TrEMBL record:
Modification N6-(pyridoxal phosphate)lysine, positions: K107
Pfam families: PALP, Thr_synth_N
SUPFAM superfamilies per UniProt: Tryptophan synthase beta subunit-like PLP-dependent enzymes
Annotated GO MF terms: pyridoxal phosphate binding; threonine synthase activity
The keyword Manganese is assigned to this record: no
Family: Belongs to the threonine synthase family.
Keywords: Amino-acid biosynthesis, Lyase, Pyridoxal phosphate, Threonine biosynthesis
Segments forming domain Tryptophan synthase beta chain-like PALP: 97-370
Protein name from the UniProt record: Threonine synthase
Stretches assigned to the Threonine synthase N-terminal domain: 2-79
Keyword field contains Lyase: yes
Length: 430
């Protein structure tokens, strides 16, 4: 399998090169040259296959010869060593719970797969590889946990002091081993600026091999197909489901559309956004306009110009009418998000997080207009990661899950850093 740049000014590359580089030299996103079909009989066998077996079948054609099969099988098994259950909420709506991984959010799958691929590619490197990430909260935790204990890889995370939630801060600072946290006296933009400057510093890069764990990396994007395929394996109805995806940067939904293009039976997709609605606007009007991001309750989806939108267009040959047939867009307000958390809790006892609530609202609305259909929404985070919004809506505290209790008791270890490049450079030069 080769990947070309959507900017079409760089050479096509194999999986290894695309995963190590992250972005093409021309600044474009990498896209697979062909979309493989699932092998014959695969969909019928799904209910009997493990997540690891499904991952291996789905990802093998994309990885090609970059990783030998036994090694890829091991990576797949380590990537999904936790359940991805479909849980019925009402007669017509089920949740696909993606928050049973180590950081309680769906980004675990992509981060775990990517980290193990990069670990494999750097195994003969004499210089250790340093993964440098700036985070506003969730991504850093998933990346840190994904790389934890991977030999030959060191992770350095920059996060804005005082601006991440207590759970997120523990997930960044209490892991130890090969993960180091830099607490920057500044905001997320400062963190991102420092990281970008380090990547431009040729002398530093001579001394240390730097890699990014960017969300557009194919090794983070492609494994997300697994959610949709394992969900279909658990779907008890003959008619295929509607699938609603809470979307920000659109990597997750784009992976679902890719699985659909490979043959996965889904009757319709719903792009569930908060007030950051560039893609729903496009679906309605056929015109795309990036917007400045606005803050909302579902803050992991506060993206004004989603990176993966270009991949969705490419997948559908830039045919707006074709895409519109398959995909509906919703922009859900914070008021409707809170009301949905409260209503679903009262009616069923199920506790949604704000991101899942956006998708629930959109799916319920879509199903009202399609009374013969049923659907699945992706619940992308555990409610404990967004306790304020959830407790305000339900009137009850969210209990801390057992998996997290131990981590919450570990000592926090971080290094305070002034938001100046010289400080980061000195730290990395050691
Ligand atoms: C990142 C994230 C999203 C958005 O996913 P995209 O792939 O960027 O569209 C949704 N929910 C949660 C909890 C997230 O962390």
């Amino acid at each position: 399998m080769h990947y070309y740049s959507l900017n079409r000014q760089s050479e096509p590359v194999d999986f290894r090169t695309a995963a190590v580089a992250g972005q093409a030299p021309d600044g474009g996103l990498y896209f697979p040259e062909t979309i493989p079909r699932f092998p014959a009989g695969f969909l019928e066998q799904l209910p009997r296959l493990s997540s690891a077996e499904i991952a291996l079948t789905v990802l093998r054609p994309y990885v090609g010869t970059s990783i030998p099969e036994p090694e890829l099988a091991r990576i797949c098994a380590e990537t999904v060593n936790f359940p991805l259950p479909v849980v019925p909420i009402t007669e017509r709506i089920s949740a696909l719970e993606l928050f049973h991984g180590p950081t309680l959010a769906f980004k675990d799958v992509g981060a775990r797969f990517m980290s193990r691929c990069l670990g494999h590619f750097s195994r003969h490197e004499t210089r250790p590889v340093t993964v440098l990430v700036a985070t506003s909260g969730d991504t850093g935790g998933a990346v840190a946990s994904g790389f934890l204990g991977v030999p030959g890889v060191e992770v350095v995370i920059l996060y804005p002091s005082g601006r991440v939630s207590p759970v997120q801060e523990q997930q960044l600072t209490a892991l130890g081993q090969n993960v180091r946290a830099l607490e920057v006296r500044g905001n997320f933009d400062d963190c991102q600026r420092l990281v970008k400057q380090a990547f431009r510093d040729a002398a530093l890069r001579q001394r240390r091999q730097l890699t990014s764990a960017n969300s557009i990396n194919v090794a983070r994007w492609l494994p997300q197909q697994l959610y949709y395929v394992t969900a279909l394996g658990q779907w008890p109805h003959a008619a295929p489901p509607v699938v609603a995806v809470p979307s920000g940067n659109f990597g997750n939904l784009c992976a679902g559309l890719l699985a659909y293009a490979s043959g996965l039976p889904v009757v319709h997709f719903v792009a569930a956004c908060n007030q950051n609605d560039a893609v729903p606007q496009y679906l309605t009007s056929g015109r795309y306009a990036a917007q400045p991001a606005v803050p909302t309750l579902s803050n992991a989806m506060d993206v004004g110009d989603p990176s993966n939108f270009g991949r969705i267009l490419e997948l559908f040959g830039h045919q707006h009418p074709v895409l519109r047939q398959l995909l509906s867009g919703y922009a859900v307000s914070d008021a409707d998000t809170s009301a949905t958390i409260a209503r679903v809790f009262r009616a069923t006892g199920y506790v949604l997080d704000p991101h899942g609530a956006v998708a629930y609202y959109a799916l319920a609305d879509y199903l009202r207009q399609h009374p013969e259909q049923r659907g699945i929404f992706l619940e992308t985070a555990h409610p404990v990661k967004f306790p304020e919004a959830v407790e305000a809506a339900t009137g009850q505290a969210v209990p801390i899950p057992d998996e997290l209790r131990e981590l919450m008791q570990q000592p926090k270890q971080s290094t305070l850093l002034e938001p100046e490049y010289e400080a980061l450079r000195a730290y990395l030069w050691e």
